[in-house]
Design brief:
The complex is a heterodimer. By secondary structure, chain A is mainly alpha-helical. Chain A contains 13 helices and three strands; from the N terminus they run E-H-H-H-H-H-H-H-H-E-E-H-H-H-H-H. The radius of gyration of chain A is 23 Å and the shape is globular. By secondary structure, chain B is an alpha+beta fold. In chain B, a hairpin with an 8-residue loop joins strand 6 and strand 7. The relative contact order of chain B is 0.17. The chains are: A mainly alpha, B alpha+beta.
Chain lengths: 402, 170
C-alpha cells in the first residue's frame, strides 16, 4: 500500500495525486512566470496604448471640441490608464506575494480559484471585500474614519503622474518630477495617522504614531540617497535621468547608476532599504506589527476601506519599484547593446517587477525590527552614510568633469 | 573603526545569507498536500476506523471481550434445524463513537486474515451519533451500514470515504 518514496519526501506517506498535480511540486520558478505576467499586465496596458497616443489625441481634436476640452479629456484618459495600472497591480501583486511567500515557506499558496495556480484568488477576494459589511466602531471619529483611506490612496495615485513606464512614457512630464513624487508620497502618512486616530483604539493610535515617526524618518535617507543620481544626471526630470543612463562603457557595461563604483551601489541599497521602510513592509512594518499592535492602524477597517489601505501599500511598492528601475537600473535602457530592439517599456516594467520581487523576497526573509532598532538604524547609520555618499558623489563628479 | 566596518559587513552578510536561504527554499518542492484532491496515506501500523469482514468471522466473540470500551456487539447464527451455533455472525456492530482505537480487538481476533482490523481510513466524519454505529450482516459491504433514525432503517454510511478505498489488512 505505501510505496517507498525514497528520501526526497520527509512525510512517510504515499501521495495520491491527480496527474496534473505532481508538477506543481516543482513550481518554485513561479516568480519568473510572475515577472512575465507582471510585464503583460502592467506594461501591456500602458505600453501598447501609448503607441496609439498621438493618433488618439489627433482623433479627439477632429470632433471640433475646444482645445481646453481636448486637453482635459486627454488628462482623464491618462488618469484612467495610471489608475488601471495601480488597480491591476493591486490585484496581481497580492496574488504574487501570496505565491512567493508560499513557495518560500514550502507551501503552495492559492491553488483553486481560477484553475491555474489560483490566479483569480485576488479577484474573488475583492468581490468578497465589496460585499463585506463596513463596520465603524462606536468610539470612532466617523468622518475621519471614512476619510482616512481616501487620504491614504489619493496621493498614491497622484504620485504616479510623472512615473516613467518606459523611455519618454509617462502620464505627465514634469521638470521636478522626483521632488513631486517624494512630496506626494509623503502625504499618505497623514491618512495613516488619521486612520490610527479615528479608529478610537489605542493599538491603532500607536500604529499610526509609529507610522508617522517611521515614514517621516525614512524620508530623509530616501531623499538623500537619490541626490547622487540627481547630481550625475543634472536634473530632477525623470526622463532626463532615464536618458542619462543610456549607452555603454567599453561597449557592454551599461551606464546605469547602480554600476557607478561605490556611490551607485550604496545609493541603490539605501534607496531600497528606505523604500521598504516607506511602504511599511515587513522588516520595517512596526506600524502594523501583528504581534504587538494587532495590525495597527487598519485594525478597525473592514471591507473596501481596508482594501484601500492595501491598495495604497501595493501602489507604493509599485511606485518604489519603478523609481528604483528609473533611478538606478537604467529605466528603459537595454542591459546589452544587441537587446535594444526590445521596446523600452518591457525593460522598464521588467526591472520594476524584479525590484517588486526583491521587495517580497525581503518581506518573507527578514524578521521585524524593534522600534528603537529601527530608529537607530535610520538616524545613526543610513542618514550619516547617505551624507558621506553625497560627498563621495561630489568627488567623483569633480573627477569625471575634470 | 575597523570593528565598526567589520560589524557592518558581517551583519550585511548575515542578511545576504538569509536571502540566499529563502531563495533556495523557493525552488524546493512544497511539502504540503492539496487535501481534497491529494491525500496522504498513512503507514500500515496506523490505526484508523475499524473494519469488519463477515465472511471470515467465526463469531467467537473474543473481540467483544477484549474491547475496553465495549463498542463491539455481535450475535452468532443458529442452524434452524439442529438449533446449534454456527461459526458465522448474524449481525455485528461497531460503535465508532466509543472506540478508542487501541487495537486490542484486532490483536484478539483469531482468524487469518483478521476479520476485524483497523483500516487506514482517517476521514471518519459523522453528522449524527447514530451514524457512528455501523452494522454488518453477511452480504453487507466492508463499510457496514448505519442506522437511520428518521427512516427507521439501515443505510449506507455517507460523509466519509468508502472504506473499500483503504483496505489495508494484515
Amino acid at each position: 500500500m505505501s510505496r517507498d518514496l525514497g528520501s526526497s519526501r520527509l512525510w512517510p506517506t504515499e501521495v495520491w495525486s491527480r496527474p496534473w498535480s505532481l508538477p506543481r511540486y516543482r513550481a518554485g520558478a513561479m516568480w519568473l512566470g510572475g515577472i512575465a505576467a507582471g510585464i503583460v499586465v502592467i506594461g501591456a496596458g500602458v505600453g501598447e496604448l501609448s503607441l496609439w497616443g498621438d493618433r488618439l489625441l489627433g482623433l479627439l481634436g477632429r470632433f471640433g471640441l475646444p482645445p481646453v476640452a481636448v486637453a482635459w479629456i486627454w488628462v482623464l484618459v491618462k488618469l484612467g490608464c495610471v489608475l488601471g495600472v495601480i488597480v491591476a497591480n493591486g490585484l496581481w501583486a497580492v496574488w504574487w506575494e501570496r505565491k512567493i511567500s508560499a513557495h518560500i515557506q514550502s507551501r503552495f499558496g492559492p491553488m483553486y480559484a481560477g484553475g491555474f495556480h489560483g490566479w483569480a484568488q485576488t479577484i474573488f477576494d475583492t468581490i468578497k471585500l465589496l460585499f463585506k459589511e463596513d463596520v465603524t466602531p462606536a468610539a470612532a471619529d466617523q468622518p475621519m474614519h471614512a476619510l482616512a483611506p481616501i487620504v491614504a490612496i489619493a496621493p498614491c495615485v497622484m504620485a504616479f503622474a510623472p512615473v516613467l513606464f518606459g523611455t519618454e512614457l509617462a502620464a505627465a512630464r514634469l521638470d521636478m518630477g522626483v521632488l513631486y513624487i517624494f512630496a506626494f508620497a509623503g502625504i499618505s502618512v497623514i491618512g495613516v495617522v488619521m486612520a490610527g486616530w479615528a479608529s478610537g483604539n489605542k493599538y491603532s493610535l500607536l500604529g499610526g504614531l509609529r507610522a508617522a515617526a517611521q515614514i517621516v524618518s525614512y524620508e530623509l535617507p530616501r531623499g538623500f540617497s537619490v541626490v547622487p543620481v540627481l547630481m550625475f544626471a543634472g536634473s530632477l526630470d525623470l526622463a532626463v535621468i532615464d536618458r542619462a543612463q543610456a549607452g555603454y562603457w567599453l561597449g557592454f557595461i551599461p551606464r546605469w547608476f547602480v554600476f557607478y563604483p561605490v556611490v551607485g551601489q550604496v545609493s541603490f541599497l539605501f534607496f531600497l532599504i528606505a523604500s521598504v521602510a516607506e511602504t511599511n513592509r515587513t522588516p520595517f512594518d512596526i506600524p502594523e506589527a501583528e504581534s504587538e499592535l494587532v495590525a495597527g492602524f487598519h485594525t478597525e477597517f473592514s471591507g473596501m476601506k481596508w482594501s484601500m489601505f492595501f491598495l495604497t501599500e501595493y501602489g507604493y511598492v509599485l511606485l518604489s519599484s519603478f523609481l528604483l528601475a528609473a533611478f538606478f537600473l537604467g529605466g528603459g535602457a537595454a542591459p546589452l547593446p544587441f537587446l535594444r530592439f526590445v521596446p523600452s517599456w518591457i525593460w522598464m516594467t521588467g526591472k520594476a517587477m524584479f525590484m517588486m520581487f526583491v521587495f517580497m523576497w525581503f518581506r518573507w526573509t527578514f524578521p521585524r525590527l524593534r522600534v528603537d532598532q529601527l530608529m537607530d538604524f535610520n538616524w545613526k547609520f543610513l542618514l550619516p552614510w547617505s551624507f558621506a555618499n553625497i560627498g563621495l558623489a561630489g568627488i567623483m563628479l569633480w573627477w569625471m568633469l575634470r | 573603526m575597523i570593528s565598526y566596518f567589520k560589524t557592518v559587513f558581517t551583519s550585511s552578510w548575515a542578511f545576504v545569507a538569509g536571502l540566499g536561504i529563502t531563495l533556495r527554499y523557493m525552488f524546493k518542492p512544497a511539502v504540503t498536500v492539496q487535501y481534497p484532491t491529494e491525500k496522504l496515506h498513512p503507514y500500515p501500523p496506523f490505526r484508523g476506523a475499524l473494519l469488519f469482514d463477515a465472511a471470515t468471522c467465526i463469531a467467537c466473540g473474543l473481540c467483544a471481550k477484549a474491547c475496553p470500551s465495549s463498542c463491539i456487539a455481535l450475535a452468532h447464527q443458529v442452524n434452524p434445524e439442529t438449533k446449534k451455533r454456527v461459526p458465522k455472525v448474524e449481525w455485528y456492530t461497531l460503535d465508532l463513537g466509543r472506540c478508542n482505537f487501541c487495537g486490542l480487538c484486532q490483536e484478539a481476533c483469531p482468524t487469518k486474515p483478521k476479520s476485524v482490523w483497523h483500516s487506514l481510513d482517517y476521514e471518519v466524519v459523522f453528522s449524527t451519533r447514530d451514524e457512528m454505529v455501523r452494522c454488518w450482516k453477511p452480504g453487507v459491504p466492508l463499510g457496514g451500514r448505519v442506522w437511520d433514525p428518521v427512516a427507521k432503517d439501515f443505510r449506507e454510511p455517507r460523509g466519509h470515504l468508502p472504506a473499500s478505498a483503504s483496505p489495508a489488512r494484515k
